[in-house]
Structure formats: structure tokens, C-alpha cells
Fold each of these.
Amino acid sequence: MKLRVSAIQYHLHTIQSFDEFADQVEHYIKTAEEFNAEFVLFPEFFTTQLMSIGDSEGKALSIQDLPNFTEQYRSLFTHLAMKTKMHIIGGTHVIEKHGKLYNVAHMFYPDGRVVEQAKLHLTPTEIDEWNMTPGENLQVFETEKGTVAMLTCYDIEFPEIVRIAKAKGADIIFCPTCTDDRHGYYRVRYTSHARAIENQLYVVSSSTVGSLQTVDFMRSNFGQAAIITPNDIPFPPRGILVEGEINQDMVVTADLDLEPLYKVRQNGSVTTWRDRRTDLYPDWS
């Protein structure tokens, strides 16, 4: 089974309206469509760009205002997924449920379905500054091209949760990210490689670049999209199928082949998934 994936380095800048946001989103979708992508991944917190629209006094909106755009966000991406016949992982968007804020990844299917995965591990900024609530469970999602999971940024730094995703059948982890400096970026990048090696699966990451000069905690972004593979003979030696140019506005695209994953799990130079010592530590299945 093969599928073509595009990951977006989304350029954050101040905008004046939701329509301006929609135009930028459609630009990236059309770019991926020109490369015949079947899956497109947007980054974490890219909808914070909507906060830069501001209020009647010209002040940036707050994180509590962002859920007010949820209906428009879902409508936009549902329309684009159905129009293009692509699976669109619409990065993350902040939603409100029962008076609590959640940072939620969304996948929009070509048939109009929408599925959600709340971020499970929250950073101090998300907790202390934005008063967010972590998700409570992990799901994997079936598509016509295979089983995928959506784990957002900080989530990928926890090996246990990716083990669970793999045990549930995921072959691809879509990881929307948003990091503000080199330290944050490389934490996510290095652990993405570790998770791909440990579980013999693909990790696809997207990132925000640019700056929202009026939005607190979104004033600085350091990012690079990448498609990461296990480190074994069927794959590139460095485990990088494709990566963007750091901090540039761009889309990267590559083909993922699931068959080599199945082969290395059985006959690879190492078989890290099969060789787990579950007699010494818990199994996640």
C-alpha cells in the first residue's frame, strides 16, 4: 500500500479576516493537489493566526475567543477535503467542551467525515497561560490507505503513547507541531526519529513558521516539516524521506510505502517492535 503525503510549513502572519485565512489554507491545499497528494498535514496551533484579526479596538483576540471560529474552521476543511478527495489533517484547533479548552487535531475525510484527537500531554504554556485541558484517550483511525494516529507535538516525546498507537495498528503517526525556538524544535524532531525506530513506523510532522506579532506566545516560530522513517536498509540511512528548509514557507511531499514497514518488522537488520522484552516491562497492546 502506497500513499502520497504533503506536510506544510505554514507561514504565520497577521491577517484581517477569516476569508484571508481561508485563502491561505486553500493555497496550500492547491499546492498539495498539484503534487497529487492524498494526505495533507497542517501544523499545530496554526489557527491562532485567527487571533491576529483582533477586536473592534484593534487588540489581538484571546485563546478563549478561538473556539468561536470552530464552525467556520470545520466547514472550510470539510469542503476542501470533499472537493479535492484528499484526507486533510487540519493541524490543531482549540475547541471548547463543557467550559474547558482542548487543543484538538482534526482529520477531514473525502466523504465528509471528521474525526478528532485531543492533545494528551500539555506543555506548561498550554496549562499555565492558556488554561487548557488534556485529552483522556488515544484513538487510531482507519483510512482506505491504512491505519493512522494523530499525536500532537509534545505527545511524540512520550514513548509510551506511541507504543500504544502502534499496538492499536497505526503505521503512520501524523504529528502537527508548533515550536518557538531551536530547543523545542529539536526535542520534537529527535524524539520523532526515536519513535520511528522503536515502533518501525512513519512519522509525518508539519510546523509553523513566521510570526504573529500581536499574539502572545505566538511571536516566535522555529520549524521544519519532515517525513521520518525507520533506520533500516529499505529506507534512507538517516531516516529522512523528505524535509523542508528550516523556517521557510513551503510544502514538502513524498510517497510512503507501507510494505517495507511490514518487511522490516519481520526481517529487518533489527526488529525493535518484535524484540520487546515484555517479560521485563509492560506490553502496550
Amino acid sequence: MSMKSGEIAVLSADMFDTGNDFFWIGSPGCIPDKYPLLEQPHRQLFYMLLCIESAEGSAVIDGVTILLDHPKIICVKPGSICSIHINRNASGHVICFTEGFFSLRYNNNVLLNFSFLNKENVHEVRLNAAKAAEWSHITRFMEQEFHHRQKGAGNVLRSYLNILLCNLERLFNPVEGTERKNNKEEKLRQFKLLLDEHFIAHKTPSFYAGQLNITTNYLNKLCREYNGLSSGALIRKRITLEARRLLHYTGLSVAEVAKELGFESASYFVTFFGKNTGTTPESFRKKQQ
């Protein structure tokens, strides 16, 4: 649930004890009693959307204090140092999800398209009355879906989440689509597209750097600048995502998944999966059932 990194706790999504490590939705008013770790400065390994309808208190994200005094959406990104102080009668919803949860259905590059998730110092978007009512309506449906846990609930929750993120993008940056991305961002976008196309056959950064007519070192620099990860780490992340999809959505054996992903042997795939997820393919598959 939590580890120590110096004096800052590191929290993962399993702190909510919901039977999964990927998604949780609940009331912000339950934080003081049920999740007091969120009140202390911490880093979290998941995205959080704090959807405030009516509340008192504040959220501190990377040293920036945000008052919980109006209807607003506060976004906490993985790796940020955050603490949340909120009253027990607060209304609204807290939505926590991992990138892996969202990407299990949607392409893993989709989160890159949401500019508020990729800018450095964007934490809140205020809502007018009409937007606040719209968010309240959708998040209540999400909460019902989460608690009823009917067949296909995960896919329904991902769909709702995509709707919320698209709406949030419109609020944050309605003219994004008309702006030209800079050359660095365009190179990174091209890398992600090439990665989606070739990750099974080509698992080394040098191939992608060659396709982009840049050096491997420059590709690494771009990836670290915009994603905080090396190009090699992003390649491994993409392979791992596809492995999770195949294990979750198909009946292929582990050996067949390994072959599908271009691994020379099942044992090499099992080792790779373990290093990148902390679990075995069999354990991951059982946890999804």
C-alpha cells in the first residue's frame, strides 16, 4: 500500500482495498476517516481527479495550495507531492486510476492527448453551474457502476472516464486542436506512432531513432523531457501493456502470448513480464478474473 522514499510516503492504488489496483471512486468526505494517508504529504502512483461540488479545506500539490471553495476539478498526476485537507461533509467525487487501467481499453498514447495531464503546473479547472451539474451527473453514474460491479463494469468505467477527460480537455484548452505542436513534441508523437506499429518486431531504441533520423541519445533526451522515462523504458511499457491486454482479454496460453509478442521463449517473456510488473503472467490473469 505504501512505501517510504525518504520521509515521503509513496501510495499505490491498492490503498483503497477494492480488490483491484487500478481504479477507485468515492466521496472526498471519507478521506479524513478512511484514507488519512492522503492528508499527509505523499507521492502517489496513480492519477487523481478531485471533483469538488461543495467543500472546505485545501489541496497542496507540489507546493501550490488550492482552496476547495468552489466547484472545480483538481488533477493530481503520478509523482506529484500532494496532501489533501477536506471536511467530512464535503460533496463530490474522488476518482483514482492508473494509466494501465485506462490504456487497457484505449490506446496507450491517448493520455498524451490530454494537455492538462502533460503540462507541468496545471492543477485545477473551475466549473460554472452548468458544468458542475454535468460532472455531478456523470460521476454519480460512475460511482453506481463501480459499486454494482456488473459484467463489463471495467469497460463501462473506462468509457465514462474517457468522457470526463475529454470534457476536462475542452474546459482547459478549447483551442488546442488548432495549435501546431513544436518539433520536439511532433518527434515524440511520431515515435509513439512508430512504437505502436513496430513494438513486436523491434524492441530497441536504435530502430526508432533511425526511423526518425535522429540519434538514440537525442531520442532518449526527448522521452525523458516529456515523459520522464527513457525510450527503452517506453518500449518496455508498450510491450507490457500489450501483454496485459492479451492476458486479460484472450484465452491464449502464456507461451502463445510470448509468441504473439515476438519473444524467443516463454521463459524469457515470463522474466520480462515479472521485471516490468512485479508479478507473473499467471498471477496477473487470475487477478483480473
Amino acid sequence: MDIQPYTSTETLAVGRPWLMSMLGIEANQTITLDLTAFDETLHWSEASKYQPERKLKSGIPLGKNATSGLYEPYAAVTNEVQTVTVTGGPTGGTFTLTYSGQTTAAIAYNATAAAVQTALEALSNVNPGDITVTGNAGGPYTLTFGGQYLGDNVAQLTATASLTGGSTPGVTVATTTAGGTATASDGTQKFAGFLFTEVSFYPSSTKAGAPLMVHGQIDVAKLPVAFDPADVPAGSNTQFVYKV
């Protein structure tokens, strides 16, 4: 019997870990970015006294604003946001959260946002990155869905409280932003392609030229922002092969 070893390789471009292969580079298009539409930290890093230019990250999904003709971050469907509020000023006790039939371990009445997120990520139906929790210790806590629930209209969590002290303490959950609804109607809701390379610009700049990648193989997990190809609407750019 002749047994041959199986090997697999990936080719990455320097500074572009999200690019699985060089396929598509020759298909880049020159575009103009509306720099005012991009957010610090999420899309670009601040300049320093040694490096005066800001750095716009490569791999950002883009859409074209039909009014201005400029390119902005792709406005995918909205991510669900829910708020968990501990009411009544308790001084002790715990509460639990239930999501789609799975219930967390007991959470302290004054837990930090990180502790609430850890409790949720321990559920069998929540992976790291699926729910990001922010807020002060003791709440209110803001739960933003992403990961496998990116752009989905998910079920609202429920809470069960075993709290002490205060005045009729309890825990309420509210959906502040329903997932699944397009965030724009100006053209940016239609996916056009990925920003192919880093773009440097000065803080006073409002526009910049850039290469748009419109054909290639993409490692979604390594993109600088969350992106779910399943949420790309019909009629958008389909010239990509994704590794999810």
C-alpha cells in the first residue's frame, strides 16, 4: 500500500492575516474613503508624537454611500443589544440568567460586567465573543450579541433573582436594539469588498484614496471587525471564498 502524507498550507500577505491567498489581488479597485465614517479603536488607531498619522486597519468590510459616492464601513444587519438591570438596591444575594433554555451559575448581585460575561460564556450555547457585556459592577449591564449570533434577532434572556436587602430587589431584562434589521439605506448596506491594505492619514483628513479588494479568499476570524458572510444581502459582492 502506498500511503502519502496529507499537507495543507495557507499563504498570508504581510499585514493582512485575514487574506488566505493572493487570489484576487489583481482585481483591486481604487476608491475614496469617507474617513469621518470610521471609528477610533474599531477601525483605526490614534497617532502618536513619533508617528503622526492614524492607521486605518486593513480588512475592513466596505460599502459605497450612494449619495456621496464615498466608501464607508459596511452597514451589516444590526446586532442585538439587551440590558440587564438589578433593581431595588439589594445588599446581597445572587441572580441567574437564562438564554435559550440554558441557565448560568449564580451571579453575585454586585458582579462586574466581566463576571457576567464569564457566566454567560460557560453556557453550552454561548461561545467566547458571542455576547459582550459592559457596564458598572452591579449593573446595569449591556449585552451585545456577536459571533455566531452576529446580526441575528435572538431570544430575550430571562432572569431569576435570589437577592437580599434593599427594597423589593429584582432583575429585569429589556431588548434595547433588536437584531436583524439593516442599519442603513444609503447604499452602505450592500457589501462591496474589503479594504486591502492599511491606510495612513492625518487627523485633519476627511478623505483618503485606498485599494478595494473585490475578489479573494478570506479568513473571517482574522478580520479586524466582526463579519458574517451569511448576513450579506442578496445582490452584494459574492466574489469571495470564506473560511469561517
